[in-house]
Amino acid sequence: MGQPRKSVRAGRTGLSGRTAVVAMIFALGSAGCGIVGGGSPADRPLDGLSVSSPRFRDEAPLPADYTCTGKVGNPPLRWSGVPQKETKSIALVVDANNAQGAAEVHWVLFNIDPLTTELAQNSVPRGALQGLTSSGKVGYTPPCRPDDTYRFSVYALDSKLTLKQGAVLRQTLEDIAQHTVARGRLSAAHIE
After folding, report:
1. Which of 34, 61, 70, 91 could form a disulfide with 110 if both were Cys (CB 3.0 to 4.6 A apart)?
2. In the CATH hierarchy, which fold is given to the domain comprising 8-191?
3. Which of 134, 119, 142 is closest to 72 using CA atoms?
4. pLDDT (tens place) for every residue of the chain, 192 residues total
């Protein structure tokens, strides 16, 4: 008699597997396998972004200026390859992965204008918001552990996030994962 009813949960998320994918991404991130980046809104392979910095190369050491012993703040970053038609905002997640597999988030920046292609040293683009880090603070938390790998991941999102400044880390990461259409990463092998 009639059509089977759709689950309210599936109707809200759009794709029935999206919630499971987001939970899996967060679990992998907590284990140090990558904070965000296994799923996409269309459950398809993600486009790749190119991420670089004028201050260090991929897999090279992070200059001490951008660590807890320096006084500069965040390093400058550049990115390219953003799919212009789909992208409504950019997000940045800086995290560390150590030998014990523990991940620590040092910065979450979201709602960056989609036409932005670089981030200046020690700056937050106009209109962008910052979420809480693993330390419970808002803003760039300079890394301190000399042997960790530090990852600067840039995400192209299919919408602006409806979160406020100081948003809870877990919610921010989940929202980024749900809306990612492209991503790229620059890694620092350790602190110089």
Report:
1. 91
2. Phosphatidylethanolamine-binding Protein (3.90.280)
3. 142
4. 443 333 333 333 333 333 333 333 343 343 333 444 444 444 557 889 999 999 999 999 999 999 999 999 999 999 999 999 999 999 999 999 876 777 899 999 999 999 999 999 999 999 999 999 999 999 999 999 999 999 999 999 999 999 999 999 999 999 999 999 999 999 999 999
